[in-house]
Write a structure and sequence with these properties.
The protein has about 220 residues and is an alpha/beta fold. It has 2 domains: about 5-140, Rossmann fold, CATH 3.40.50; about 145-205, Arc Repressor Mutant, subunit A. The chain has helices at about 15-25, 40-50, 65-75, 90-100, 110-120, 130-140, 145-150, 155-165, 170-175, 180-195, 200-205; strands spanning about 5-10, 30-35, 55, 80-85, 105. A 5-stranded parallel β-sheet has the order 2-1-3-4-5, sandwiched between helices. Helix 8 crosses helix 11 and helix 9 (about 170-175) packs across helix 10. The longest helix has 15 residues, at about 180-195. The protein is elongated, with a radius of gyration of 18 Å. The N and C termini lie far apart (about 40 Å).
Length: about 220
């Protein structure tokens, strides 16, 4: 692959980290860097362009832990996704693999390791840090809600995110420029696909994918 043609998306809500990552990889990868600071801005970006790689932080505004990863793998299967996260425990790595990411890079990695990991994924391989590779390979995790979430259309997924934000049907319809009847139809489809009865249960199911809080 011609490195000069690479287009890599950094999806992270911290501008300092995005800038630090670009600076760390300057001179190691010749790429055009695209940026997203939320699940919504990432989805909008991918609707207009097809990058060679997405570097995804699991915790951005609009994300619920693994939900954005699941959505990307379901609706943009041709785009490789590498999770880059401060959550470096083996259980988190195992879950990202279960949801079909192409690699996991700890945020504590040095620039050489970052570049090597990205190059490996761009060549079609899966990258894992050595300290967790054996554990991740042997771990089985529950993925029922992830499978159900992957069945949602992009618009249904957006509506579910808005439910989680506490927005009313009228507000969602206004923001998405559709009728309230359309939102109600989306809601019915969401409940059916997730196997729940109402929006509260749907939001609880989505929140079940959130990351465990790190303790100091």
């Amino acid at each position: 692959m011609d490195a000069a043609q690479l287009r890599i998306v950094i999806a992270d809500d911290h501008p300092l980290f995005r800038n630090a990552l670009k600076q760390a990889l300057a001179g190691k990868l010749d790429a055009q860097w695209l940026e997203a600071d939320s699940a919504a801005s990432l989805d909008a970006l991918l609707s207009d362009t097809t990058p060679d790689l997405v570097l995804l932080d699991l915790e951005m505004p609009g994300s619920h832990g693994y939900s954005t990863l699941i959505h990307l793998r379901s609706h943009y299967p041709a785009v490789p996704v590498v999770v880059i996260s401060a959550h470096e425990d083996p259980q988190t790595v195992a879950k990202t693999l279960n949801y079909d990411c192409q690699g996991f890079i700890p945020k504590s990695s040095d620039p050489d390791q970052l570049a090597a990991a990205i190059e490996m994924v761009l060549e079609g391989e899966t990258y894992l840090p050595e300290c967790v590779a054996d554990f991740a390979d042997s771990t089985q995790v529950e993925n029922d809600i992830g499978t159900r979430l992957a069945d949602l259309t992009p618009q249904q997924y957006r509506v579910l995110q808005m439910f989680a934000e506490g927005m009313l049907n009228k507000q969602i319809a206004y923001d998405l420029e559709v009728s309230e009847a359309t939102i109600k139809a989306h809601a019915t489809a969401i409940f059916r696909k997730l196997g729940v009865r109402n929006r509260t249960q749907a939001v609880i199911a989505l929140q079940g994918l959130e990351m465990e809080k790190k303790t100091l």
